[in-house]
């Protein structure tokens, strides 16, 4: 699916999907009814209605397999963002074990990293263009700062270890969300899904070719179900693109200035 489709508001996306499905259904109906004459009409009527059941089941299986990938990607994206936010929150809280200067520097680096994620990485992930080529300066500097912190006593030593571990966890979570952001249902699956739907609609039209109202009603019902399935998949196909994309809110909530405001309130 093209990027512009995923970036449409849900209303326009639904209109496009339902309108396209309606046009395709009308074209199939018109072609089958036009061909249902003389010998071809008898051949169409010879098609067993029992064929509709396996065709519908096959379509349902294709939808289920595609949906499994889509929901899995969304779950992984949400888990990665939440894990990243939790790790950064732990870093900010653990930094209180160190002197004010080190604590302020760590908070500033975490804030810088989150700000870059919001302003640079999220738009790039929405376009599926973000890469793992470079480590964000804020996080790499925070890791360097944490490793070089002078420790006095077992408490600060334990805090330092936890800060380094949580920064490493944040890096891993960032890596996971960027990888998930490049995931999408490929064109082969979309092609198979649409062809299967077209085959089922054609079979419905052939079985009911001698009863046009029945053909229109049956095809209309199935086409509506097809459009709803496609709309649902397209709206969730890319975890970080579109109106229902994964939000950076967990990261915003753990930004040091947000934590200070929360503590003050």
Secondary structure blueprint with pairings:
Elements: H1 3-6, H2 10-35, H3 38-46, H4 52-94, H5 100-126, H6 137-148, H7 154-181, H8 187-207, H9 212-236, H10 249-253, H11 256-264
Helix pairs in contact: 2-8, 2-9, 4-7, 4-8, 4-9, 5-6, 6-7, 8-9
List keywords for this structure.
265 residues, mainly alpha
Name the overall outline: rod-shaped
Helix percentage range: over 70%
Compressed to H and E, one letter per element, the order equals: HHHHHHHHHHH
Q: Beta fraction of the residues?
A: under 5%
Distance between the termini: 46 Å
The total count of helices amounts to 11
Number of strands: 0
Q: Largest sheet at a glance? A: none
Q: Give average pLDDT, whole number.
A: 90
Low-confidence stretches: none
- Rg for CA atoms: 27 Å
Please identify the structural class as seen in this structure: mainly alpha
Describe this structure in words.
- There is one protein chain.
- This protein has about 260 residues and is mainly α.
- Helices cover about 80% and strands about 0% of the residues.
- The chain contains 11 helices and no strands.
- It has helices at about 5, 10-35, 40-45, 50-95, 100-125, 135-150, 155-180, 185-205, 210-235, 250-255, 255-265.
- The longest helix is centred in the N-terminal third of the chain and has 43 residues, at about 50-95.
- The model has no long low-confidence stretch (mean pLDDT about 90).
